[in-house]
From TrEMBL:
Pfam families: BsuPI (PF12690)
Residue intervals of the Intracellular proteinase inhibitor BsuPI domain: 14-105
Record-linked InterPro entries: Intracell_prot_inh_BsuPI (IPR020481), IPI (IPR038144)
UniProt lineage: Archaea, Methanobacteriati, Methanobacteriota, Stenosarchaea group, Halobacteria
Full protein name: Intracellular proteinase inhibitor BsuPI domain-containing protein
Annotated organism of origin: Natrialba aegyptia DSM 13077
């Protein structure tokens, strides 16, 4: 059985002085419960690329360390979970934000356009 996961990504800038808040929602669209297994405390990674050049300008996991621990999230059919990150010091421009689930043996990602 292949998990039927869909992802969506929202990017919000609450005010001009704040960073960009990224919210990645993963939904189980299948008929069976899906167990997402993780090997560390980082359950999703986020990246931002310059729309014009395609060059990555920020990645959530860069320069960070995460506790090494085994954990699992279960998603019942129709259930969703969210993972969040903040790009604290964004620069101005047009970007593409990407979120990717870091679960073992399961893939799910989402993209969205972002204007700062």
């Amino acid at each position: 059985m292949t998990p039927s996961l869909t992802g969506s990504l929202e990017a919000a800038t609450p005010d001009a002085d704040a960073g960009v808040e990224l919210t990645f929602t993963v939904r189980n669209e299948g008929t069976d419960t899906v167990t997402l297994q993780f090997t560390d405390a980082c359950k999703a990674d986020f990246a931002v690329a310059d729309e014009e050049t395609g060059r990555e300008v920020w990645r959530f996991t860069d320069g960070r360390m995460f506790a090494q621990l085994l954990s699992a999230d279960e998603l019942e059919p129709g259930e969703a979970t969210t993972y969040e990150a903040e790009w604290e010091t964004p620069k101005s421009g047009e970007f593409t934000a990407v979120a990717e689930l870091r679960a073992r043996e399961t893939t799910c990602e989402a993209r969205t356009a972002l204007s700062v």
